[in-house]
Design a protein that fits this description.
By secondary structure, this protein is α+β, with helices and mostly antiparallel strands. The protein folds into two domains: 81 residues, Cation efflux protein, cytoplasmic domain (Alpha-Beta Plaits), CATH 3.30.70.1350; 61 residues, SH3 type barrels (Roll).
């Protein structure tokens, strides 16, 4: 079992207990990053959730740290980071791309891929080998293998700015 798989088996029950979803585990050199989020249906919103509060992250970090010390899946020293993946999140796994169907993303392809290196559009399909993105400018559909991309991130779209004084109701003076 790989380090990431072992860490997942240790961390998943802790996330379940804390009421958060395990989004990603990344082990690069001396850093172990664990990203957690509130489920989309936890807050009733469409799209990324409002995130995980600091107290939950603090408690989860302590629990994960103790459990990893006991399981000892990583030889040597490492830095543990437990956080939310944020509004604009990196997509790395087929599960991430399946989650991102219907969402706006920015793609940077690898140099060997023909065509534009940077594409922005909606993820329209994803399976275990590849994903499709419909370019928001040209409407062209790009079918890319996961090995064809250098980096893919979701794009957070800010809503319109509320008008000044919104939420306040003015009443007419009665005569």
């Amino acid at each position: 079992m790989s380090v990431v798989e072992t860490v997942r088996s240790v961390v998943q029950p802790l996330c379940d207990d804390a009421g958060v979803d395990l989004f990603d585990i990344e082990h690069n050199g001396g850093v172990l990053r664990i990203s957690v989020e509130r489920g989309d249906d936890a807050d009733g919103l469409d799209g990324p959730s409002n995130g995980v509060d600091m107290e939950t992250l603090r408690l989860l970090t302590r629990a994960v740290s103790r459990a990893l010390d006991e399981a000892d899946p990583i030889g040597g020293r490492y830095t543990l980071e437990v956080s939310s993946p944020g509004l604009e999140r990196t997509l790395r796994t087929p599960a991430h791309f399946r989650w991102a169907r219907g969402k706006l993303v920015k793609v940077k392809t690898r140099p060997h891929v023909e065509g534009e290196r940077r594409i922005q559009g909606l993820v329209t399909a994803a399976d275990d080998d590849r994903f499709e993105i419909t370019d928001e400018t040209s409407g062209e559909v790009h079918r890319l293998g996961y090995d064809d991309v250098d980096k893919v991130r979701t794009v957070f779209e800010w809503g319109p700015t509320p008008k000044s004084g919104s939420g306040k109701t003015r009443r007419k003076a009665s005569s």
